[in-house]
Design a protein that fits this description.
Largest sheet: 3 strands, parallel
Radius of gyration: 18 Å
Number of strands: 7
Strand order of the largest sheet: 4-3-5
Helix content: 40-55%
Shape: globular
Structural class: alpha/beta
Strand content: 5-15%
Number of helices: 7
Order of helices and strands: EEHEHEHEHEEHHH
Length: 198
């Protein structure tokens, strides 16, 4: 499964879309602020991708925990955060935060009115916060086959569908043959973004 990433601002923010945010960053280089974890996590890398694609720059403020990032946003110390939906769904539902972009291939079922980043004309690769099952490289083929069959059947079960919905994640089941190239693609992308960012 993938944990999707969204961009969120305060509900009273002037930015109604990621495009609005980018335009404001263009007018005020390094003037806007994003709170996130370390510089190598998905939220930071996603912000760097947008900056690279649009030629703008904003300031990244490292905050150790999600509650600190949320507090920084709500107290106006920063202008944007890039969390997973489940981290901020209560704040969105209460009207304290507004999602302005989904960093996903298609709109999220849980936030159907929020346009994807590409729908807003910002063409960036999508970083995946992936969750999966890994095994040692020398695991026997029959063990792999058993696991693939078991988890594929699991993803068709009502309990899995309920889990996906409740946790606001995306179900993108891959067998081992597709998982390795996917992880390699993500690794190459992360390395490129970090090198470009210095």
């Amino acid at each position: 499964m993938l944990e999707p990433t969204i961009a969120v601002v305060r509900a009273d923010s002037p930015y109604k879309s990621m495009s609005d945010f980018v335009q404001a960053a263009r007018a005020r280089p390094l003037g806007l602020k994003q709170a996130g974890g370390s510089v190598t996590v998905i939220e930071s890398l996603t912000g760097l991708l947008v900056q690279s694609a649009t030629g703008v720059r904003w300031t990244f403020i490292s905050a150790p925990s999600m509650k600190d990032r949320i507090a920084n946003l709500l107290s106006r110390n920063v202008d944007i955060i890039i969390p997973q939906p489940q981290d901020v769904n209560e704040h969105i539902a209460s009207g304290r935060m507004r999602p302005i972009a989904a960093f996903t291939e298609k709109r999220l079922a849980v936030l159907p009115v929020v346009p994807t980043i590409r729908e807003q004309g910002i063409n960036v690769p999508i970083f995946a916060n992936a969750r999966g099952i890994l095994a040692p490289p020398d695991v026997r083929p029959e063990v792999v086959a058993y696991g693939e069959d078991f988890f594929e059947r699991l993803t068709r079960s009502p309990s899995w569908k309920k889990y996906v919905e409740e946790n606001q994640v995306e179900d993108v089941f891959l067998k081992s043959g597709g998982l390795a190239p996917f992880l390699e693609e993500q690794t190459v992308l992360m390395r490129k973004v970090l090198q470009q960012a210095g």
